[in-house]
Amino acid sequence: MHICEAKQELANTLRAYLRRDETGAYLYPTVRQRPLLLMGPPGIGKTAIVSQIAREEGLPLVAYTMTHHTRQSAVGLPQIKEKTYGGKAYAVTEYTMSEIIGAVYDAMAATGKDQGILFLDEINCVSETLAPTMLQFLQNKTFGTHALPEGWVIVAAGNPPEYNKSVRDFDIVTLDRLRVLNIRPEVETFLDYAARHRLHGAVLSYLGLKPERFYHVSREEAEPCYVTARGWEDLSVLLQSYEVLDLPVSQELAAEFLNFEETAKDFYGYYRLYRKYGRDYGVKELLSGEAEDGTRRDRIAMARSGDFGERFTLVGLLLEQLRRLAWTYTRLDRQAVALQVCLKAYLGQGGRLRGISAPEENGPGYQAGIPPLRPRRAESGGADPKTAGGIFNGGKRPAAPGPGSAGPLPEGGLSEVLGASESPGRGTGRGHRPGNRLLPGCLR
Fold first, then answer.
1. Are 173 and 402 contacting, i.e. CB atoms less than 8 angstroms apart?
2. Contact 66, 120 (CB under 8 A)
3. Of 174, 142, 166, which is closest to residue 75 (Cα–Cα)?
4. 281: pLDDT confidence band, cut at 50, 70 and 90?
5. What is the rounded average pLDDT of the residues 420-427?
6. Is residue 157 a contact partner of residue 37, using CB atoms and an 8 Å limit?
7. How many Cα atoms sit within 13 Å of 388 on the Cβ side?
8. Which residues are registered as beta bridge partners of 156?
């Protein structure tokens, strides 16, 4: 399966495992709640989808990279206790609280939630001393004598042996207690993600033209060669930053992220053409309507005479600029909706703008819930709208607001609502319109 399918399966599993009846008892037997193991090549988003799902489902996440930990992290440290057996005192070994299980209880205390995700990354690369303990945990959900609290789901991730020399194979007994999701890299899924997360247009256009360059892992003369989704995304962010600062981009710079000489060289050549065509065609001026008729005709003639690669790149440039315009308009739309929410709340409480007021309690539009803005005459003895301090001037609260009136203005006022809507496609601003088609997606 590709990464989007894996994310959806992870979400489905959480909902099934964590379903409870009216008494609070879990409907899915705990003993049948197999941990999920995400197996796939490096850099394709396994870790990312776990954090995304935790955020989207409102669950606390405790994450550990197991290569950095020893047996003591799992089972705790030994300590000597005295106990009496058969009337005789003995010194016995007990263990302090498991660091991992302790982190789960800390997350529960910090969030006030009794359900969550315990994520164990690089699970098949644990140290030799930790391996037996980890197998016990995957089978029984306990580290020594410390059990994972009910309501917490185990998700693990690892790389197949061909990508990592230090991996350990799981035996059949362990595998028979896991749900293994084998994830493969897929360029179409990445391009969908890249478009919604505003990756550089050259990256989208290049991978659309040469999808075979998307992912590569091999060894050339004992040197590892790798190109991953993570590398493309990190390179994209760097290119965008360098262009804003007007810094030079070299093939060596691209090779720091695309660790395969053929791909780094090929992409760098394409990137130079992409920049050149952007300057030659003046895409921004064409789409903004600033270009004169003669200039537009020249650009059309230039595109018609160009080869397939040039025209394909031009399409990528046009799409990139259209996406920027769409993001800008989306942000403005969300801010307008947020402003409407604040105005509705303020006017619903009897507030007054300069020369504008909320409708009478039973007047037209009152029951609709969105008070119509209309001029209002200044009352005798009232403040002059032209000299009143600030845009908002207090008015009389209606004696009995009807069902269509808005609730109180959010604490923090307009800035609180608008401040959450800076980045379309990423945030969850309170002014966000739930049905906005530009925002949903598999990887948010």
1. no
2. yes
3. 142
4. low
5. 39
6. yes
7. 16
8. 37, 120
- Name the E strands within 194-335: 216-220, 223-227
For residue 191, what are its two tokens?
């391009």
pLDDT bucket at 280, cuts 50 / 70 / 90? low
pLDDT band of residue 372 (cuts 50, 70, 90) is very low
The SS3 call for residue 342 is helix
Structural tokens at position 412: 């923090």
Of 236, 210, 215, the C-alpha closest to 225 is 215
C-alpha dihedral sign at 415, 416, 420, 421: negative
| pLDDT at residue 157 greater than cutoff 80 | yes
Answer yes or no: are the C-beta atoms of 167 and 150 closer than 8 Å: no
pLDDT in tens, 326-363: 777 888 888 888 888 888 877 777 666 555 444 454 44
Highest mean pLDDT among 9-18, 220-229, 305-314: 9-18
Q: Give the pairing type, strands 78-85 and 88-95.
A: antiparallel
Q: Which amino acid is located at 121 in the chain?
A: D
C-alpha closest to that of 358 among 386, 409, 398 = 398
Whole-angstrom distance, CA of residue 338 vs CA of residue 297: 42
Contact 433, 334 (CB under 8 A): yes
Which element (helix H / strand E) includes 83? strand 78-85
Instruction: Report long-range pairs for 286-289 (Cβ below 8 Å, ≥24 apart).
Output: 287/318, 287/321, 287/322, 287/325
Determine the Cα–Cα distance for residues 191 and 211; give it in Å rounded to an integer.
10
Highest mean pLDDT among 113-127, 309-323, 397-411: 113-127
Contacts of 314 (CB under 8 A, 6+ apart): 277, 281, 283, 303, 306
List the structure tokens of 131: 């391996």
Say if residues 36 and 178 touch (Cβ distance below 8 Å). Answer: yes
Amino acid at 309: G
Average pLDDT value for residue range 176-192: 89
Nearest to 313 by CA among 238, 212, 201, 211: 201
Q: Which residues contact 330 (CB under 8 A, 6 or more apart)?
A: 424, 425, 436, 438, 439
* Cα distance between residue 425 and residue 193, in whole Å: 11
